[in-house]
Amino acid sequence: MPLDFPTGPSEGQIYTDATSGAVYEWNSAYGYWSKLEPLGDGVVYDQANVALATASAAFDAANTGGSAKITVTTTTAEQPIDTVANTLGWSIEYTITANVGNSSHMSKLHIVHDDTIATYSEYGIIYSNVSLSAYTTNYAAGIITVNAIPTLENTTYNIYKRSL
């Protein structure tokens, strides 16, 4: 049975299929609905902010798998875009895209920790018009925090993470 998507959607509009419970978001830049995958325990779809919000567990994935997350910023100040408990593993790989309007920025982060500090390397950086973000990490009380420093307000981050 075909899905009954709303007509004339606006950027970031969320649609939940009543039959399957699947959640979709409209992407006007590409003109299609993208399926948002559940991220695990504590995850909710935050329709007011057109973002995925998580409970305190953030979006930890199984050690062999990965997960995706969408976060929308409203300021250019440094801010956390993910937190990870050190129990997830000693090393984590991120692929992050930052988008504003028709501009896109993509990079990879490799993060390792030794139960006292988190060290990262950013590489594979590519962007369409202008660099949209920089990243930092910190480690405190067994939690690794990945921070973004967006160059523009209303930056959307699409994040894929996997523990290695």
Layout: helices, strands, pairs:
Elements: E1 14-16, E2 23-27, E3 32-36, E4 43-46, E5 51-54, E6 66-72, E7 79-85, E8 91-100, E9 103-113, E10 118-127, E11 133-140, E12 143-150, E13 156-163
Antiparallel strand pairs: 1-2, 2-3, 4-5, 6-13, 7-12, 8-9, 8-13, 9-10, 11-12
Quick rundown:
This protein is 0% helix and 55% strand.
Task: Give structural attributes.
164 residues, mainly beta, Immunoglobulin-like, five-stranded antiparallel sheet, 55% strand, globular
What does this structure look like?
With 164 residues, this protein is an all-beta fold. The chain contains no helices and 13 strands. It has strands spanning 14-16, 23-27, 32-36, 43-46, 51-54, 66-72, 79-85, 91-100, 103-113, 118-127, 133-140, 143-150, 156-163. It has a five-stranded antiparallel β-sheet with strand order 6-13-8-9-10, with no helix packed on it. A three-stranded antiparallel β-sheet has the order 1-2-3, with no helix packed on it. Strands 7-12-11 form a three-stranded antiparallel β-sheet, with no helix packed on it. A hairpin with a 6-residue loop joins strand 1 and strand 2 (23-27). The N and C termini lie far apart (39 Å). Residues 39-65 have low confidence and may be disordered.
Number of distinct beta strands = 13
Shape field: globular
The assigned structural class equals: mainly beta
From the alpha-carbon coordinates, what is the Rg to the nearest angstrom?
16 Å
Calculate the mean pLDDT score and round it.
Answer: 74
Q: What is the architecture of the domain at 62-163 at the second tier of CATH? A: Sandwich
Q: What's the CATH class label of the domain at 62-163?
A: Mainly Beta
How much beta, percentage-wise?
over 45%
Low-pLDDT regions: 39-65
CATH superfamily of the domain at 62-163: 4-oxalocrotonate tautomerase-like
Alpha plus pi helix count: 0
Q: What is the distance, rounded to the nearest whole angstrom, between the alpha carbons of the first and last residues?
A: 39 Å
